[in-house]
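Progress note, project year one: complex with coenzyme A.
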Amino acid sequence: MSEDEVQVSQECVVRRARRSDLRDIYLIEVKSFPYPYPMEAFITFLVLYPKYFFVAECGNRVVGYVTGVREEDGSGHVMSLAVLPSHRRRGLGSALLRVLEEAFLRDGVKRIYLEVSQSNKEGIKLYRKFGYKMVGVKQKYYPDGSDAYVMVKEVHT
Ligand SMILES: CC(C)(COP(=O)(O)OP(=O)(O)OC[C@H]1O[C@@H](n2cnc3c(N)ncnc32)[C@H](O)[C@@H]1OP(=O)(O)O)[C@@H](O)C(=O)NCCC(=O)NCCS
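Model obtained:
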């Protein structure tokens, strides 16, 4: 098993995403967010940042993903994280975020940030648990005009 592949439970692993996963990833995105990224965005993330794109696979089925970008200032940016509703609350979201953070850390990232909807209680709770702190608000971030919190984690190794 490579350093980028982690056994999460008897039937689930987190591994690097592949092109053939994109359809499943997009379907999870659509089921998880009111304003999903278009498929083209995922293709771009996979082409430009394959090191920071992971899926959770359970019994040969892709049930979750996380995708990140390394910004020009050296920060890690969590672009999207989602798990199929049927597979939530089993630790997969945490496992995905942990593997992405480790990939960022290996590349010397010291600061990781993300945007999360102010109404997304589960997401905010997950990120707080991981040590992310709210540092600001991006107004009218979503197409319906609602705001996003910006959450940041400073990583000390
Ligand atoms: C947020 C999300 C990725 C969590 O995935 P998950 O596999 O259920 O996460 P985990 O089982 O690892 O849970 C980790 C922690 O998240 C928080 N959490 C997750 N779901 C929660 C819920 N329904 N209610 C309250 N807290 C929740 C808890 O702190 C939980 O830790 P705990 O189980 O020790 O209490 C998932 O709910 C999801 O895909 N939501 C829709 C998309 C989204 O909001 N993505 C994140 C914002 S970009």
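Residues 6-110 form a domain with the Aminopeptidase fold (CATH 3.40.630.30).
Residues 32-33, 80-83, 88-94, 116, 120, 122-123, 125-126, 129 surround coenzyme A (CB under 6 Å).
No further modelling is planned for this target in the current period.
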